[in-house]
From TrEMBL:
Name under which the protein is recorded: ROK family protein
Native organism: Orlajensenia leifsoniae
Xref: Pfam families: ROK (PF00480)
InterPro entries associated with the record: ATPase_NBD (IPR043129), ROK (IPR000600), WH-like_DNA-bd_sf (IPR036388), WH_DNA-bd_sf (IPR036390)
Family note: Belongs to the ROK (NagC/XylR) family.
Length: 397
């Protein structure tokens, strides 16, 4: 009995140490082996063994130390394995974006597949499966080793089992997208709300790196969602549905600013309204942003100003309730903010409680259009980061 207990304890400690080293390299690498030793508090021989095991699992690679570093004993550099990746998926009303994302939050390849109708869960899975199968014969993509899949859905997702309870713009209700994908592509799959995953990505790799109290708002084709990081942890609520800022009733000071009687925030602060005012039917984020920022049309400027005013009120309500130190805006909300960030900040602070806004900063998403894909990838990597020995290559069906 004692031997079993000791073995279990050893296995648990070993698993945690593997996780500690892999996570360090994932979030902060490449690092010298000496830096890994210092950061983990483990001894050099233990780190050498752990790195060798992770290399055997194709999760890290070691390279020779920088020859210009002549001070002290040379230490090999440990980096995420360049060929180990996950599939990241973001279904939207106008397109499905599919990416290969490596350890370290590196987007290796991304495809935006536009659709002319709102796709069903089954159609979305078929598009993903067909696209990924095509990668197997596509140059550099063919050598990638995929270990999981992550999906960022613009809707309310039950975190316990990945069931999409309600994605109104997609028309999905109680959609088992996780099980459909696992059956189709043969990879363990994690599904979560897109804005929650965007918040995680910005916290770990983007504009909110190192900040522990964040309100993140994401503006996409399906409206506005939100993610909350409190004391460094994602707040999901009792079932994972927290952060639906887009469904709040906005405060609108003048009737001239209202466009949707009895509408919610995402009816007023709207990507569709921005597309309309610049004369576009559809566009990816960079195209829409460029069209808005380059326009000299007074109607475009008036619409940006109107949306900024309403967004400012919504943000001040979140600030008064949650007291974050940082607000991050992604998607078309970043463009609305960047059209006059100083004006947005002034409008927010004018309405927020003075003490709540004392150290507040508003930033746009640092990861740009990759933020949701990196967030979806992070969800997919979670199991492997916790237990590196669980990683295993998959063969696509």
């Amino acid at each position: 009995m004692l031997a079993v207990s000791t073995l279990g304890t050893f296995d648990g400690v070993h698993r945690r140490n593997l996780s500690k080293v892999l996570s360090l390299v994932h979030y902060d690498g490449p690092l010298s082996r000496a830096q890994v030793t210092a950061a983990t508090g483990l001894n050099r021989s233990t780190v050498a063994t752990l790195v060798s095991e992770l290399a055997a699992l194709d999760l890290v690679v070691e390279s020779a130390p920088d020859p210009t570093n002549r001070v002290g004993r040379p230490s090999p550099v440990v980096a995420p394995h360049p060929l180990t990746a996950v599939i990241a998926v973001n279904p939207e009303v106008d397109a499905i974006t599919i990416a290969a994302v490596g350890l370290g939050g590196r987007v290796l390849h991304s495809e935006r597949i536009e659709v002319d109708h709102i796709v069903s869960p089954e159609e979305a899975v078929e598009i993903v499966a067909r696209t990924v199968a095509g990668w197997a014969s596509t140059g550099e993509l063919a050598v990638l080793r995929f270990i999981a899949c992550g999906v960022a859905v613009p809707g309310q997702v039950r975190r316990a089992d990945g069931l999409v309870r309600w994605a109104p713009h997609l028309g999905w209700s109680d959609a088992g997208i996780r099980d459909l994908l696992e059956t189709s592509i043969g990879l363990p799959t994690v599904v979560d709300n897109d804005a929650s995953l965007g918040a995680v990505a910005e916290h770990l790799f983007g504009a909110a790196r190192g900040v522990d109290d964040i309100v993140y708002l994401n503006g996409g084709a399906s409206g506005i969602g939100g993610g909350l990081i409190v004391h460094g942890r994602l707040v999901g609520g009792s079932a994972g549905y927290a952060g639906e800022f887009g469904q709040n009733r906005p405060g609108i000071a003048t009737t001239d600013d209202r466009r949707a009687p009895d509408g919610v925030l995402e009816d007023e602060v709207s990507r569709a309204r921005l597309l309309e005012v610049v004369g576009l039917d559809t566009a990816d984020e960079p195209t829409l942003a460029a069209a808005l920022m380059q326009s000299t049309d007074d109607a475009v400027q008036r619409e940006l100003e109107r949306q900024r005013r309403i967004l400012a009120t919504a943000l001040c309500n979140a600030i008064n309730v949650l007291n974050p130190s940082l607000v991050i805006l992604g998607g078309f909300l970043a463009t609305v903010a960047q059209s006059d960030l100083a004006a947005l900040e002034a409008a927010v602070l004018a309405q927020a409680l003075p003490v709540a806004g004392e150290e507040l900063e508003i930033r746009v998403a640092g990861l740009g259009e990759d933020r949701l894909l990196i967030g979806a990838a992070e969800a997919a990597f979670t199991a492997v980061l916790a237990d590196p020995e669980s990683s295993a290559p998959a063969t696509f069906r």
